[in-house]
Amino acid sequence: MNFIRQPIKILFFFLIVVTFLLISFITDLIVRDRKKKLISFSRIASFSGKVCLMLFGVKVNLKNLNRYKRANKNYMIVCNHLSYLDIFVVYSVLPSVFIANSELEEEFPLGVVTKYGGGIFVERRNRSRLLGDMDNISSVLNMGLNIVLFPEGTTSDGQAVTAFKAPFLKSAINTGTDVLPLCLNYKRINGESLDEKSKDLIFYYGSITFFEHFFRLLKLKNIEVELEALEEIEVNPKMTRKELSQIAYDKISSAYVSI
Prior knowledge:
Blueprint: H1 2-30, H2 34-56, E1 58-63, H3 66-70, E2 76-79, H4 85-93, E3 97-101, H5 110-116, E4 120-122, H6 127-142, E5 147-149, H7 170-175, E6 179-189, E7 192-193, H8 210-217, E8 223-229, H9 241-255
Parallel strand pairs: 1-8, 2-5, 2-6, 3-4, 3-5
Antiparallel strand pairs: 6-7, 6-8
Helix pairs in contact: 1-2, 2-4
């Protein structure tokens, strides 16, 4: 049945992406206020993310997230990173603005989708841009919007949560925005527990191209993932970004189940 399932999913995914980009493009033209534009982008992306997860057969089990979904406050959200699916999972639950590597900006279709999802592209390796990027992130936090950061900097192979890169957490300290750590654990594929052999059907890392991985993903019937909200970190101005990064890392790495 894979030879039938895959082209149907490709067709519907194409329609979802085109619809998402069209609505977001029109929103970009009509809405001038940056805060309203980012809110609109995040809501459109959140709805589109939910539809994409349904298409991919992804079931998201939420753990301890209800109180944060209802909270009348915004967070700097930090999460471990395993796949481009992570973005759909987090977006579907918590409408947010994503921080993305500048290299992604040139990668089709992820770059275009991230841009019209309200993503902020940063250059982690360019110190001359660091202050400007942090100011940009701080301005969004001051608008009262959630920002999602994958502090590992890239996706991992699932063996462990890799070391966090701390610079952009400074924006949370500068703005007094509390940090909400999230932990993603992919549990099952096609009803079977995830293991070393099957993890590469979901985890996106190494030299594999997006489309090569994506077409493989579309053959799957269903995926089960757990998204756990860990205890929020109350930020104070005396904290250093490295201290904040270590606290977040310890919480997430303790909750992550390695493959």
